[in-house]
Amino acid sequence: MKVELKNLTKIFPSRNKKAGGEVVAVNDFNFTIPDGKLVGLLGPSGCGKSTTLYMISGLQKPTSGQIFFGDEDVTELTPENRGIGLVFQNYALYPHMTVKQNILFPLQNLRGEDKLPKEEMLERAYRVAKLVQIDELMDRKPSELSGGQQQRVAIARALVKMPRVLLLDEPLSNLDARLRLQTREEIRRIQKETGITTIFVTHDQEEAMSISDVIVVMKLGVVQQTGKPQQIYDDPCNLFVAKFLGTPPINVFNGEVKGEVLYIGGAAVLSVPGVEDKAVFVGIRPEGFIPDEAGGLLCEVSGVDVMGRDVSIVSKHKEMLTPSVRSIVDADYTLAEGQREVRYALKPHKVFLFDKTTEERIYFGV
Ligand code: ADP
Ligand code: MG
């Protein structure tokens, strides 16, 4: 099911009546989620992710704009009539019911012509339980399950009505690091197997990058960029997006363009054809540095981190705006004994320039 958001806007009245001022939680959101895809809605806390999801679910009414499922305008429909499955961060299972009863619950609530025979309800409950691999746990109570198992029950409960759209609001936040990894792969598998159009909300860029077909990056209620994860990483449209995606994060410097050459701290570091003379922010991905005696960028070494496969040189530079300069280099690269400085050449496609006022990307080269 394709989901289309048209000029979707949500304005909340101020929580503090005296102080006044309303909150524009979501501002003119336009996007079409392709049928059968998993979309990651990504941004820092408070940027409007949950509000967007709740409007798609029908739990909140948009201030303006429209929502379509396929060709059907669902903007005025109640959540029950939209055919959605919703999963929250805190599972929200019924504690006094068994796993089986929890999963059956949405089906038992169906009325009229939607009502199913008992055998079919059971058959469906077992089918989704098997899909999320909890069919052995059907007679337990939620308190007898681990966090990861509880979240699987919540997903099974959301799937049992065979929703047209599955909505997940930070579903992994309550799990520990290893379970988070495992469960996100599970969600990906379940989504692929069922082919249900899915919207996955998270503030964790790595999570969004690893699981999504398409990512939507939001800031203060406004969509910044949409695209495939790798495409956004390789081609961020502004400084915010460049900084939000990537671990270790992008390195940012003050720079200056003069005569189509980029200078950092007075040293020429890269040719930037087509860029007019001006002061800029320079973003360099950690993998964009090549240790090179002839390189223009001279940094003061403060340490070397070996993290599994990666060797990362931590250094300092007086024009850097991020806490330290972190480069990821070839695992067989070694610093000489007592080496205090390192010179880098730069990979042009890993270097991004940004306007200092608007923080929009300035493109160079071809
Ligand atoms: P996120 O899920 O990205 O953390 P939310 O969608 O929950 O962000 O919130 C977006 C903005 O809207 C925040 O500034 C938040 O304080 C505000 N907000 C959310 N719900 C309400 C509400 N019911 N009343 C007033 N303001 C709200
Ligand atoms: Mg939220």
Which properties best describe this structure?
23% helix; binds magnesium ion; elongated; binds adenosine-5'-diphosphate; 366 residues; alpha+beta
Structure, described:
This protein is of the alpha+beta class and 366 residues long. It has helices at 49-57, 99-108, 118-131, 147-159, 177-194, 205-211, 229-234, 239-244, and strands at residues 3-12, 23-33, 38-42, 64-69, 72-73, 84-87, 165-169, 197-202, 214-219, 222-227, 251-258, 261-264, 267-271, 278-284, 289-291, 297-307, 310-316, 325-329, 341-346, 351-355, 361-362. It starts with a strand and ends with a strand. The model has no long low-confidence stretch (mean pLDDT 94). Bound molecules: adenosine-5'-diphosphate and magnesium ion. Adenosine-5'-diphosphate is lined by residues 12, 15, 23, 25, 43, 45-51.
Q: What topology emerges from the helices and strands here?
A:
Layout: E1 3-12, E2 23-33, E3 38-42, H1 49-57, E4 64-69, E5 72-73, E6 84-87, H2 99-108, H3 118-131, H4 147-159, E7 165-169, H5 177-194, E8 197-202, H6 205-211, E9 214-219, E10 222-227, H7 229-234, H8 239-244, E11 251-258, E12 261-264, E13 267-271, E14 278-284, E15 289-291, E16 297-307, E17 310-316, E18 325-329, E19 341-346, E20 351-355, E21 361-362
Helix pairs in contact: 2-3, 2-4, 3-4
In a few lines, what is going on in this structure?
Helices cover about 25% and strands about 35% of the residues. The protein has about 375 residues and is α+β, with helices and mostly antiparallel strands.
Strand content: 25-35%
Bound molecules: adenosine-5'-diphosphate, magnesium ion
Order of helices and strands: EEEHEEEHHHEHEHEEHHEEEEEEEEEEE
What is the 3D shape?
elongated
Low-confidence stretches: none
Derived structural class: alpha+beta
Report the span from N to C terminus.
38 Å
- Quick one: biggest sheet? 6 strands, mixed
Give the assembly state of these chains.
single chain
- What's the number of extended β-strand segments? 21
